[in-house]
Amino acid sequence: MSFQSKLPNIQTNIFTIMSRLAAEHQALNLSQGFPNFPSEPALKALVSEAMAAGHNQYAPMPGIPELREVIVQKMELLYGATYDPETEVTVTVGASQAIYNIISSFVSPGDEVIIFKPAYDCYEPVTELHGGKPVLIQLRPDFSVDWEEVKQKISPKTRMIIINSPHNPSGSILSREDMLTLESLLKDTDIILLSDEVYEHIIFDGEQHQSAALFPGLAERAFITISLGKTFHNTGWKVGYCLAPAPLMHELRKTHQFNVFCVDHPMQKAYAAYMKEAENYMGLSSFYQQKRDYFLDLIKTSRFSFTPAKGTYFQLLDYSRITDEADTEFASRLVREKKLAAIPISVFNMNNADNKVLRFCFAKTDETLEKAAEIICSI
């Protein structure tokens, strides 16, 4: 058959490549961002209870009411933000499906979408899939934003800006000053903000997450996307949600109902019950900071250099003192020869700029981190 690809330049993503290499070489996998420790027994028990109670048929299209209620309560507790559970919250199949639906609902052919690089790998192709034009802005070497460049790149065609904080893959965060600057830039425009906040609870060293919900001028135009899989160590369950003002959410649900219609019913029941206890998510920052600090202490004598991540469960390591190899080549050799998998950062940058940096996931057991550190220190 003859056909024209809508995404002719998209190849197998780097997460699949590195995880496959890790499996082939029986390597420690610190590449893909998933925990290797068990889910909470209490949360798994709640899923079983929901199944046994008969919650096994279609859930309501926007999500079960009790889960949307507890999400609204969480936003009030964390950010003092008010959302209507009926019209401003939609439960999705993870944050990626929410992001897809947001772009699908609002980006038309010729629309421009501003994306900061390095970027999570779904933003750009989904924009292109819907005929939009990605307008790329490379973050500074310290992963901060050049807001003057953003101002220059905003045009009458700009339909959306996508931000991600805490930031994957760098582990950096946007400050209050950053958000106020963005709020000022978007004032009196019709630009939609897509704020990817999946690591909202994983932020370190006493910093506070600057959610778009905290800033009225952003909240009035923002979709906020969240991953419960990231929060509760169950990435395979694929449950997330998004929040937005009612007129925006109304459009999103038009797409959502034909994309997946609804999300796993017993999982929603379990999360609704589990999230009623705020301590089940409030302690996440200290949990992961302990892992970050433990990992960095283990590798402090290595030849890698680093700046401690400010958020997420990813740590960048600079290997420029070790080799001049391209990061993709070094990452591949690290798997083959040292049995350790990481992610090369160049694949997320504009023009695949190679700064000799690899990303390691520290959402692992202490035993795994110790084994990985032993390898890192041996290089």
UniProtKB/TrEMBL annotation:
A GO-annotated cellular component: cytoplasm
An annotated Gene Ontology molecular function: kynurenine-oxoglutarate transaminase activity
Taxonomy, superkingdom: Bacteria
Keyword Calcium: no
Pfam families: Aminotran_1_2 (PF00155)
Family to which this protein belongs: Belongs to the class-I pyridoxal-phosphate-dependent aminotransferase family.
Protein name: Aminotransferase class I/II-fold pyridoxal phosphate-dependent enzyme
Taxonomic lineage of the native organism: Bacteria, Pseudomonadati, Bacteroidota, Flavobacteriia, Flavobacteriales
